[in-house]
Amino acid sequence: MSFWPSAWLTAFVWTCALEQPFYIWALRERAARWWTPCLWTIAFNLMTHPALWLWASDNPHGPGELAAAEALVVVAEGAAAAYVLARAGEPTRRALARGFGASLAANLTSWLLGGRLLAGVI
């Protein structure tokens, strides 16, 4: 798996596409404009995807290590989504539940489907 440019970009675009519906659902009520959740999805993934990709492409890792790395991504993106929601006026408990719930669902989907979709491409 190469890091730059086409392999990573292909995986990044697929990841954003697969995760977009979950973040749109979570952020839609607090977004100022219809496209704001789309930008947040890209921002969340720019925060985590390059680092995970670089780490994963460095050398082979076992399933446990990959699962732990994905869990860190869920935590980072969930915290970012919860922060965005809280800043937009969502009550703290609801912001945490929606942010982490969206992150878990989004990343689980992109991990399961993305791996299958990109298996022959990258």
Overall description:
This protein has helices spanning 6-27, 36-58, 63-87, 92-118. The chain is built from four helices and no strands. Helix 1 packs across helix 2, helix 1 packs antiparallel against helix 4 and helix 2 runs antiparallel to helix 3 (63-87). Helix content is 80%, strand content 0%. It has one domain (6-118). It has 122 residues and is mainly α. The model has no long low-confidence stretch (mean pLDDT 89). The N and C termini lie close together (6 Å).
Shape: globular
- Secondary-structure element order, N to C: HHHH
In terms of quaternary structure, the protein is single chain
User: Ends: how far apart?
Assistant: 6 Å
Helix coverage percent of residues?
over 70%
Rg, alpha carbons: 14 Å
- What is the makeup of the main sheet? none
By helix and strand content, what is the structural category?
mainly alpha
Strand content: under 5%
Number of strands: 0
Overall average residue pLDDT: 89
How many structural domains are formed by the residues?
A: 1
Helical run tally: 4
Give the low-confidence spans. none
